[in-house]
Design brief:
The two termini are about 45 Å apart. The strands form three sheets. Strands 6-7-8-3-9-10 form a six-stranded mixed β-sheet, sandwiched between helices. The chain has a four-stranded antiparallel β-sheet with strand order 2-1-4-5, with helices on one face. A hairpin with a 2-residue loop joins strand 12 and strand 13. The protein is an alpha/beta fold and about 325 residues long. It is about 35% helix and about 30% strand. It folds into two domains: about 240 residues, P-loop containing nucleotide triphosphate hydrolases (Rossmann fold, 3-Layer(aba) Sandwich), CATH 3.40.50.300; about 90 residues, ACT domain (Alpha-Beta Plaits), CATH 3.30.70. The protein contains twelve helices and 14 strands. It holds the Pfam family NIL.
């Protein structure tokens, strides 16, 4: 488990500039075994947050707890030992060019004093796990970006951590490599029982692998939770970022309805009521439905014609009573 309580990080002023408040009272809990994401715009404090989890940066105030140990209460030598249970994957791989893939994976074990035979056995085991058993003697310059990141993941797992931190682990990769690395991270989490915290600015990454996520803005958590619950909330800033609400030209005739789709509130029921029971003309004016966190989620914009006001009001009331998430879209929202 990872827990940050009321964490604040202030960087002192440089020259005549003001001090910088990178994180301002952040609370974050990642349950054991979860794959959690932290998203937000540039400068929101994401990278500072992940460096606080393993105390590469110490918070100005607040506490950081990993696997039940309050790291912020530990002296420096104990923090170093505690870091052995926390693996980290970086954006730009951070591999040593002079070493082979196998030697890069062995490096943290070498620093920990593990014997040569055990280091070689462990590196071979991990390179097989990440699909690079046949590239053990390749140097980083001979590997693609996706392969380099797989080696970096293997290295992060060398000391058998319980927590894996990923700092923009796919932002330097092309789409195909990103997909492969995300699938690997999810599989490693499942097979090894890890807790994973991933920092990213890419909403597609969160949708692909995360169970939970938080949205950071200006150093504060403004929204978060389990993705299936977040995406079911109509007023969620994180849901709006993950699945932007569709818009349509309100000048075209008809009434616009926005439908929030979940497994328990499918769009098919809305269409059955509007078209099948009421005989209205319905056009899908925008939006999409995707599989996120193992379920169907999305937002659709429907244009409805052929209904008088009172009839449509009754239909909307019936749909809401049935559990459908549907709302009329005001003209100024749809522009």
């Amino acid at each position: 488990m990872i827990e940050l309580n009321d964490v604040r990080k202030v960087f002192p002023a440089r020259g005549r500039g003001p001090e910088v408040v990178a994180l301002d009272g952040v609370d974050l809990t990642v349950r054991a075994g979860d794959f959690a994401g932290v998203v937000g715009p540039s400068g929101s404090g994401k990278s500072t947050l992940i460096r606080l989890v393993n105390l590469l940066e110490r918070p100005t105030s607040g506490t950081v707890t990993v696997d039940g140990r309050v790291l912020t209460d530990l002296p420096a030598d104990e923090v170093r030992r505690a870091r052995s249970s926390i693996g980290m994957v970086f954006q730009h791989f951070e591999l040593m060019d002079s070493r082979t893939a196998a030697a890069n994976v062995e490096h943290p074990l070498e620093l920990a004093g593990v014997g040569r035979a055990e280091r070689r056995r462990r590196s071979g085991e991990l390179l097989d796990l990440v699909g690079l058993g046949d590239r053990a003697q390749a140097r980083p310059a001979q590997l693609s970006g996706g392969q380099k990141q797989r080696v970096a993941i293997a290295r992060a797992l060398a000391a058998r951590p319980t927590v894996l931190l990923c700092d923009e682990a796919t932002s330097a990769l092309d789409q195909a490599s990103t997909t492969g690395v995300l699938e690997l991270l999810r599989r490693v989490r499942d097979e090894l029982g890890l807790t994973v915290l991933l920092i990213t600015h890419e909403m597609a990454v969160v949708k692909a692998v995360c169970d939970t996520a938080v949205l950071l803005e200006a150093g504060r958590v403004v929204d978060g939770g389990r993705l299936d619950q977040v995406l079911a909330r109509g007023d969620s800033p994180l849901a709006a970022a993950l699945l932007p609400a569709p818009v349509a030209d309100h000048r075209v005739a008809g009434t616009l309805l926005r439908v929030t789709v979940t497994d328990t509130a499918p769009e098919t029921h809305v269409l059955q009521v509007l078209v099948g029971r009421l005989g209205l003309d319905v056009e899908v004016a925008g939006g999409s439905v995707e599989t996120v966190a193992g379920g169907r989620h999305g937002r659709l914009l429907l244009r409805v014609t052929g209904a008088d006001q009172s009839g449509l009001d009754r239909a909307l009331a019936q749909l809401r009573d049935d559990g459908s998430r549907v709302e009329r879209v005001a003209a100024e929202v749809a522009r």
